């Protein structure tokens, strides 16, 4: 018992542990924004079992939903996300990170209101668009917000908590859309964005943005708030603030951005690596699987209940993302990303092989195999590719062009989300599940080779100076 207490005490005081009391406000700020990403995750997970219901004879709605309608309902999330990327990406430097944090809640409320009052399929399409807008905005401003308030030693852990909260939300969405009546769900989930708005009121703007706007008094208060040194700032804290102030002022003195800032050797390398990351993030299929998981299991040759399998996938996603939060600041970004993409290539190839033979052979006694393979794919995919893409996209670029490049990268990712969610069900219907999985595996294999050679490790990289 004494050893356990000693271990807990050491963990809470260790300099690079999120349990260190010095990081309390950073952790609480991260948990606050995670309320909205958790609610967004519920919206994502809600779709997969619900689509199956809406296309069945027992649909809770008074209108039919075709395969074409389903592909639009799924894919409009990507277009909404693209708009969220562009709007929030533009506003985050104009009105600040905190104001953008407020702006993300109303569209998410609109998602659930439209779901409740849906009288035609267009209601669901608009609802998904609004849900995508919130998600797209979250993926732009939240990683930047966290990277600016977080200590270097725990930045990776805090950033991966965003995707952990999304995946927990996805699991809850899988469960409630399977077992809870259609019209009860919106009432329950609407409480989350309201709670989010209340909690966000106490968060100061980030120090970096306030310094860029030359609001030095507010910037100092913000810095000491997130460093837990409000009452008696230490000499080292004051020195750290002055150093940060000097870095921001020097960057401002360099003048506005020009095209030359985007065509340096380092910047071009970052663009190439980012393009590969964005491509594999979507065309590996890992996000499409979340939206169409029930249909995948229906076509896999497994005799297990598709919705039960979908819920188990949610658990695997959470386990993978949680593993990333534990390991990202220990092993770094690159090794986890490579393990993730390589593991997916193997798992998807095996899944394709099973479904190929299931079409001509009786494999009912092995009906658990698709579940095991997809659980493995979900685990390793979320351990690196899903959990760390946003982290790397924020960290990889030079500081001067980071906000713009991160926003453009997320806008590109959202377009790819739209494309993949629109194509995936049609591709699977045209070519079959085996070819679909092998195509995704090929994308993973090619990306693995490129990232093994060119992906730079960003663990411990300063977010304020290159």
Q: Given the structure, what is the number of helices?
A: 18
Query: What is the N-to-C succession of helices and strands?
Result: HHHHHHHHHHHHHHHHHH
Oligomer: single chain
β-strand amount = under 5%
Low-confidence region ranges: 1-15
Give a quick account of the main beta sheet: strands, pairing sense, barrel closure: none
How would you classify the helix and strand content by structural class? Answer: mainly alpha
Features:
disordered N terminus, globular, 18 helices, mainly alpha, 0% strand, 466 residues
TL;DR of this structure?
With 466 residues, the chain is mainly α.
What does this structure look like?
- With 466 residues, this protein is mainly α.
- It is 76% helix and 0% strand.
- The chain is globular.
- Mean pLDDT is 85; it is low at 1-15.
List the helices and strands and how they pair.
Layout: H1 2-13, H2 24-54, H3 67-91, H4 97-103, H5 105-116, H6 121-149, H7 155-179, H8 185-189, H9 191-200, H10 207-212, H11 216-226, H12 235-253, H13 265-283, H14 286-298, H15 306-331, H16 333-358, H17 369-395, H18 402-454
